[in-house]
Amino acid sequence: MRKISKAEINDIALGASLLGAGGGGDPYIGRLIALDAIEECGPVTLLSPDEVPDDAFIVPIAMMGTPTVLCEKAINGGEYKALAEMVESYFKKKIFAFMPIEAGGVNSMLPFAAAARLGLPLVDCDGMGRAFPELQMVTFTIGGMSATPMALTDEKGNSCIFNTITNKWTEELARAVTMACGGSVSVSLYTMTGAQMKKYAVRDIVTRSERLGKALRLIKEAGQEDTEAKFLEITEGFKLFKGKIVDVKREVRGAFNFGTVVLEGIAECKGRSAYVEFQNENLSAVVDGKIVATVPDLICLVDSGTYTPVPTDALKYGKRVLVVGLKCFERWRTDEGLKLVGPRYFGIETDYIPIEERCKA
Amino acid sequence: MRKISKAEINDIALGASLLGAGGGGDPYIGRLIALDAIEECGPVTLLSPDEVPDDAFIVPIAMMGTPTVLCEKAINGGEYKALAEMVESYFKKKIFAFMPIEAGGVNSMLPFAAAARLGLPLVDCDGMGRAFPELQMVTFTIGGMSATPMALTDEKGNSCIFNTITNKWTEELARAVTMACGGSVSVSLYTMTGAQMKKYAVRDIVTRSERLGKALRLIKEAGQEDTEAKFLEITEGFKLFKGKIVDVKREVRGAFNFGTVVLEGIAECKGRSAYVEFQNENLSAVVDGKIVATVPDLICLVDSGTYTPVPTDALKYGKRVLVVGLKCFERWRTDEGLKLVGPRYFGIETDYIPIEERCKA
């Protein structure tokens, strides 16, 4: 158990946006929402999973929709209280703690705002260890858990409770309501017991985000030479490419941002080319016509000078980036995991090969 | 209090489909669902509104979506039990009786199926006295009542409970889920007390449907001459036009069937022309360039030989029809009523003039 105050929030947001793998939203807006809530209501108690009783009622909190919409259609701050009341009244149980459902700039932060405002602790875990575009893509689905009953509320005060036959149906119905509400809503889903959380969640993700964020900040602050090796060391990342963005193709389809970013090699990659395909998050990286990484491993683009993560909605012509691959949570590499989030689910015609093997070859 | 068995159902379905004013679905499928439930579970007790205690919990039942979809994507019959359980558990109250929300071939019938299957009575009233395309278009909205908490379930077992800030928002969110579920779902909304029902509902609509249906059947069975005068007498209808359908323009937009049916005069209307615009239901009738009827009055097209109502989704080139106007429920003619369902709401640039005045001129 430890207290998270404003100083830690900055590092957590930065590290979480790297783990967002191109998605999960810009940390700027997410951080502001968390900082504002902590400023007003005080620090948040972060519990390690093992500090949670097995029968505790644990409630994940997230934003659903397009993070870019959140910049213009803000939350009103009352959503978390509304969600908590809906969930407690529906389940007739008191919430013991909140938890995040995914990493990324926005969804790592909103649970802090909820915890601060409701005076509840937050558990140091999530359901992805990264960000993914669809809500059934969590380790809890592998554990046979249901996303529903799921609570949804918008900033105007409209709300729903869903009960669905599969987590894919939850995605369909909740996505439809999210769009009808203007593209961004607050949700609570995969409510669970402490025992389920301990068995299936990705542990210590907040602490990992903070450690990564702090290291990124220190590299940037130190401004030394040869920082790339340092960056790869602290992220345990595989360097996939270094290049300049020469084209970004985007298409909005079914409330997702699909697209491809095309890179022209710079420095030691000069004369070579690469592209990265994305659906909110980066899905695959191809260098000189050869696949070098795919989901569920994390493909992250960072500014080649500052190592600041570049989310897919901030990709711009001329930006110089380092493409780095990180190993995903081990459970994603099982058959059940790959069925949910493997390359073929996203229409990429290749088997999954772990990034460390692809990079060895 | 009286019992409704299979014989009455046929007449009620026929009469209700006339009151559907072109919408509310084909009575064929609605009737089959009701007949099947009564065959299996026995007759339904129909209560007159005054037989309901003021504090009784009254639950409307309806289908939401496109009635044409219902022909291919059938109900499974378990929807009513699911809805009843959701509503009773959410409100922590026992349902006293069901009621229909609108007339029309389908939504007049499904509440009978629900009542038969759950062994509950049905109240002889609804919220429109006709059919309308959007769910906020009920007399209960005039009474300041909320459509929510609203329960929705599909035939697969997915379900939602909505709570919204306005009845227009209920329409937006529930419509989005309806589309995501495949275009047709079962719903329960505007749950109310007996006192509210008695104050705002359109009374005796089932009995009126039955009387109309029986009269239509007798006209058809008798096969006499000069039945048109008889038809107009029993429906208290205003004859607007008699013609052959020469064109049907259709457009599906936002889960509604929009369109125009163009008529060329026959018999005493020979040499004249007319058209009727619709959004699921018929909205306005124009004869020789002059508006002769608009919502909220009922504009009904019936087969000119058999007086069988022709819903908008059954309009076909060459069909000979009589266009008849019926007075709407008086509360629709108030300022509040016209704001909800008057011609301008539907984009028709005219003030509402009651049909009896338009036809006098």
TrEMBL record, chains A, B:
Q: Where is the S-Me-THD N-terminal domain?
A: 8-163
List the Pfam families.
S-Me-THD_C, S-Me-THD_N
Query: Per the database record, which ranges form the S-Me-THD-like C-terminal domain?
Result: 166-355
SUPFAM superfamilies tied to this protein: CV3147-like (SSF160991)
Superkingdom assignment: Bacteria
Q: Which InterPro entries does its entry note?
A: S-Me-THD-like_C (IPR048350), S-Me-THD_C_sf (IPR024071), S-Me-THD_N (IPR010318), S-Me-THD_N_sf (IPR027479)
Name of the featured protein: DUF917 domain-containing protein
